[in-house]
Task: structure prediction
Amino acid sequence: MVLVTSEKEHEYRRKFLNGTKVLKEYPERLKCTKCSKDFIDSIEKGKDVLLHPLLSVFFCQNCTIFYLDGEFSSDEDGEDKYCRWCGEGGTLFLCSKCMCGFCPKCIKKNLGHKLVRDIKDDDDWSCFICVSQPLWELRAITHAAAKLAKENRRERESKLNRRKLKIAENEKLIESKCKILRMVWNTLQIRILYITKLRDACV
Result:
């Protein structure tokens, strides 16, 4: 199961193309959407940023391991027993169009308490897999920040390569100077030997 990005969502994401702007304006959203582990340091240092296997929002390594540990089983009615966001059981809002369920805790944490109230009052609720629009802003922020992390990684790698190249050039220069010094030293030794022999011959 994969949450496909529609053309309309792609258009929406253009608002968040500037990853640096996202870091400044949405620092509170740059966290694991389950455990709140901060991703800002990873983004700035160009480290790999993990995303939710289904929703493509921030999801840390530990939460991903927990989420993928086992299968999503269904109850006797064929509906989810575990939240499709955090992977935990408990009270779920079940979709009216598919078997997916999401827990109030994840929805409140990431999308706000108002949406939880709206879902409670909606007998025909469509989950985020069927209607992904409530996730667009969070997914757009995640996409822009992940893109910035890749750019930062490329910049760090580029700086590292330039540094290695500079070191290699310096090593070649040092080797060249050492070669010249060895030649000068050998020449001096020959001259000293010549002078010594000349002196001995004059004695």
Observations:
- The chain has one domain: 7-155.
